[in-house]
Structures are given as structure tokens and as C-alpha cells.
């Protein structure tokens, strides 16, 4: 699969000084460059990943993370590793220049400078940069795919998936994508009070030309920064999505996101089986009732037939505090699988949060249900830290 790197004349300018940014924008635009702007290192990294600039011009002095740290982070990330970086600074000390080059900068310019010098430097490092066809072989980041499945409709799968994805985003600060994988009857946008409109069909129809800019036009963005890919508007349109499309989407988004949470449908068609096959982890939501437990047992039997690694299946017992439900030890005995997480019934508060499109982990983070789902997210974040070191 080709990467989303798009080699245009796009330049990312990173500077929190409005006058300097405006000057660079005008100078570069006059030379035919498309200029995008960021005022912080965090914003710059996000735009570098998503919009694939040909060159990055960054000031050293930035709010929060400085330009040196930004440079190191870009060099440590496969999808941005080869983008040329030109550092700007008011410091002329040789030690600072050495520090810039050690951080991975391709060139270093001291302020004040002549506009023509910037144009020359940009064109020079572009000429020295690796050719686009070479960069096409850069290995993309592999995001962690977490599939959330329900043993039966009505067990709270979508509520848990939504709050879990939001908790991952809020507590890790990383890039998180939530995919509505119930392609016929999904209602993820309702749970998050996000508008309907463009959806997964807009991506699969041009799947071979998909890049980050096109994806951003389709994804819905929650106030937390979590992004969500909606399902089709009409149930009959689900048939237009194939298992191969799912593979391509998960591979593509794996190059952009640290976590990809998929809220799966309750049927086991080829698309759902493809999601399960690509998942690094599977959260199987059950409630302490006979029907959901029976279906969970069938799911685990299916996992055996598909030769899925059962160690990646983690059972989430929803409504664990039910006074009339089947006891936990009986559930574990029936399923021959340990319960990994327990979530108490949210009662009226949980129902209202869904109806209002205000997930509990955001609207009422101190609520016991919100805290229990946040604990699940923390478990995943903590487990991933040694791998990222």
C-alpha cells in the first residue's frame, strides 16, 4: 500500500510570532509555495503527520515544546522522518547551531535574515532531500487496533466504546480514532452529538487515492480532539463496503493514529471478521444475563475456529453490580475465560448521557461508571508505555 505522503510545494511554518509568520508566508507564496502555519510544536507535529509538507521551517523558541524537541520527535516518527527541516533562531552561538543539527535539522538560519536567503535555503534542502519514490517505501506507524464487540444487542457496547475511546484520548493525549463498525445500524454520532454527513463511504469510493487531507474532510472531530469515522447514513449502503476496504482503512489509519477503536456490529460478517483478525485487542462486552452469556460463549467458539489468539480477548462485564444477575464465577465457568474488567450500571445517568450526546467521561468524569471505563483506558495506556520507550 502506498503511504499518505504527498509531495507538493507545501511548506509548514512553525512560529508563534505573527509578524514573522506573515512575512514568511508572503515570501514563500510569491515563489509559488503553499504555506500552512502552526504556532506550537504540538500543533506542528499534528499537521506534519496529517498534511505531509515538503519542508518544515521552525523557530527554535516555541511555547511548550521547543523547536529542538519538535525536530527530534519528527525524526523519530517514520512518516515524518525524511521531511527536510530548516531551523530559525535569534541565537548565533555555534553551540546552538550544533544542537540544532544534532536534533536532526537539515539547515540553520540566524535572525535577522534576508527573505531571498530563506527562499534559497528552502530550494536547496528540497533539492538535497530524498526523492518521493524513495519515501514511498517508508514504513508507516502501526497504531493499536482495539475492537469492541457486544455479545448481544443492548449490552452497552457502543456506550463503552465511545467512553473508552474518549478516555484514551484525554488520558494519553495521543491520536485516537473511533470507527463506527456497525455499518448498517451504527449510531456513534448520536452518542457523541456529532453531525451526520460524510461517512466511511466517502473514503472507500476513492480508497486507492486516500490521503490524510481527504480523510480529515470526512472524519468528525469531538471537542476532546478524538476523531470519529461515521457509518453509512442508510442501512442498505453497508453492502458497498467490503472486507478488503476494511483492511485498507485499518492499514491506512494505522499510519496516522496511536489507537484505533472500532465499535463492531453484532453480526459476524466478513467485515467484522476482518476487523477481529486485524485487532490487537478485543473487548467483549457482556451483561450478567443468560442471553448475552450464551452469545459470548458462541463468540469464543468462533474465535477458536478462526484461530484468534484468545489472550487478546478481554471480557468486560457491564452492569456488574446487578442484584439479579448471574454471579461472576458462574459467568467465568460458563465461558472458560476470566473477566478482565467490571463496569457498574450507570442507571438513569448513563441513559441521559447517551440521549444528550454527552459521554460520561467528559461530562461527568467523577461518576463511578466514567471512572471504571477510564481505568480500562489507563490499563491500555500503561501496557503500551514500555513498547513506546
Structure characterization notes:
This protein is α/β, with parallel strands linked by helices and 389 residues long. 45% of the residues lie in helices and 17% in strands. It has helices spanning 18-30, 41-51, 67-76, 94-103, 115-128, 132-135, 157-172, 188-192, 200-204, 212-218, 243-253, 270-278, 290-305, 328-335, 347-356, 360-363, 368-388, and strands spanning 10-14, 34-38, 55-59, 85-89, 107-110, 144-150, 176-181, 220-221, 227-229, 259-264, 281-286, 313-318, 339-343. The strands form 2 sheets. An 8-stranded mixed β-sheet has the order 8-9-7-10-6-11-12-13, with helices on both faces. It has a 5-stranded parallel β-sheet with strand order 2-1-3-4-5, with helices on both faces. Helix 1 packs across helix 5 and helix 2 (41-51) packs parallel to helix 3. The longest helix is centred in the last third of the chain and has 21 residues, at 368-388. Residues 1-7 and 130-141 have low confidence and may be disordered.
Structural class: alpha/beta
β-strand percent reads: 15-25%
**What is the average of the pLDDT values?**
85
Shape: elongated
List the helices and strands and how they pair.
Elements: E1 10-14, H1 18-30, E2 34-38, H2 41-51, E3 55-59, H3 67-76, E4 85-89, H4 94-103, E5 107-110, H5 115-128, H6 132-135, E6 144-150, H7 157-172, E7 176-181, H8 188-192, H9 200-204, H10 212-218, E8 220-221, E9 227-229, H11 243-253, E10 259-264, H12 270-278, E11 281-286, H13 290-305, E12 313-318, H14 328-335, E13 339-343, H15 347-356, H16 360-363, H17 368-388
Parallel strand pairs: 1-2, 1-3, 3-4, 4-5, 6-10, 6-11, 7-9, 7-10, 11-12, 12-13
Antiparallel strand pairs: 8-9
Helix pairs in contact: 1-5, 2-3, 7-17, 11-12
